[in-house]
């Protein structure tokens, strides 16, 4: 009996140390939970059956493995869930979103890619634990394997799942990344936070494409983050206007959330905005060569979508920009010199520019000339 009590006390002390070490490594919150996610299987299967994952085949491919963390790292009995804040100082949300000549990049992607940074620090945390308890076996995860991160973080007390399906904390909102360390030690677990969305549906109402089809249920195929990042083919026409000037991701559901009034800007230098992405001129981005794109997005999560999808997204934003000769000429410079994917979006953007110009009841000669220029650049059947 005495030895069992000593061991229990040791695990509690270790858990306290883990949370202290985690904060020393730059994590704003650390929680511990068991790894039983069986209660999420039915909801996950229903979401997949509705095809709400769209082109994200990996969601279907791994199926229920996401609810069985012990199969990802056999012997694991706990998950240490961590949070790292990323809200940049001077985020300039409104200034960029309201100026349709600028491109809006989701605030999480303004700095360096978080995956390697967080995974390295999680590994360091695991090594600290192993130095204390030599029998420790661990594996870090940061979007690197099929695992339900948010349910684990929720069980670990890092927040509750909001109606937009993101994790919310009552003190710090939702501007943070998540990571996990699966571990074989039976550490004491933390208490989940109570759900505190109440009757608020602001995130559902503001969503430009109405992707939150009901509370806590997201149809990813309608989400601008999915459309601009995950979707490999053409963006469906019904979503192009609602995209506005959002060229990589979307933050609207977080921006409107009352709990984000309490969010604090990050001190993590790697997450500070790059000037070329913070409030960029759309035409400047449009004119980047592939070499320039790779240079400016080195170490950024944006790079993974590639130059083609980058141009596809910007073409839509240019179509949504105010009608101007500058925009039309920029689109025409790449006209008929690009892939079929980009060309489709150039044609749409030119049609949008033409439509806006023709709204003038008494068009000037300059507008008439610009309309003719557009018509020459469009396919004959357009």
TrEMBL record:
InterPro entries xrefs: 4Fe4S_Fe-S-bd, 4Fe4S_Fe_S_CS, QueG, QueG_DUF1730
Pfam families referenced in this protein's UniProt entry, alphabetically: Fer4_16, QueG_DUF1730
Function: Catalyzes the conversion of epoxyqueuosine (oQ) to queuosine (Q), which is a hypermodified base found in the wobble positions of tRNA(Asp), tRNA(Asn), tRNA(His) and tRNA(Tyr).
UniProt GO BP: tRNA queuosine(34) biosynthetic process
Keyword Cell membrane attached: no
EC supergroup of this enzyme: oxidoreductase
Protein family: Belongs to the QueG family.
NCBIfam families reported for this sequence: tRNA epoxyqueuosine(34) reductase QueG (TIGR00276)
Record keywords, A-Z: 4Fe-4S, Cobalamin, Cobalt, Cytoplasm, Iron, Iron-sulfur, Metal-binding, Oxidoreductase, Queuosine biosynthesis, tRNA processing
Cofactor(s) listed: cob(II)alamin; [4Fe-4S] cluster
Protein's recorded name: Epoxyqueuosine reductase
SUPFAM superfamilies attached to this UniProt entry: 4Fe-4S ferredoxins
Active site (record annotation): 143 (proton donor)
Domain of life from the UniProt record: Bacteria
GO cellular component: a single term: cytoplasm
Organism: Aliidiomarina minuta
Residue ranges of every copy of the 4Fe-4S ferredoxin-type domain listed in the record: 188-216
Catalytic activity: epoxyqueuosine(34) in tRNA + AH2 = queuosine(34) in tRNA + A + H2O
CC cofactor note: Binds 2 [4Fe-4S] clusters per monomer.
Compartment(s) where it occurs, according to its Swiss-Prot or TrEMBL record: Cytoplasm
